[in-house]
Amino acid sequence: MGNLDARVGHLEGRMLEQSEAIADIRDGVARLDAKLSDGIVRLDMRISSEVARLDDKMSRQFIWTVGMLVTVLAAVVGGLISR
After folding, report:
1. What's the DSSP call for residue 33?
2. DSSP letters for 30-71
3. Dihedral angle over CA of 64, 66, 72, 75, nearest 10
4. CA atoms of 47 and 49, how far apart (whole Å)
5. Rg of the chain's alpha carbons, rounded to an integer?
């Protein structure tokens, strides 16, 4: 009977060690999840600011392009009218 108690005690000890290891793994995964979430938030903010900057730049370039087209159109119409 003593041998059985020793074996059960040994198994209980191993189960406790594995439970602690699983708890450590869960803590590690939770830390990684938090770290990844923070990184994604920072990346999202960075991408959003970059997209806003590019949108502003493209809007200005579009305005310049439309301005040039209107100027060329006015010159062509003026040339056709003067004939």
Report:
1. H
2. HHHHHHHHHHHHHHHHHHHHHHHHHHHHHHHHHHHHHHHHHH
3. -100
4. 5
5. 35
pLDDT tens digits for range 9-60: 888 989 999 999 999 999 999 999 999 999 999 999 999 999 999 999 999 9
- Measured in whole angstroms, the distance separating CA 62 from the mean position of its chain's CA atoms is 29
Q: Which two tokens stand for residue 64?
A: 């310049």
pLDDT classification of 1: cutoffs 50, 70, 90: low
How far apart are the C-alpha atoms of 15 and 72, rounded to whole Å?
83
Residues 70-79 have a mean pLDDT of 95
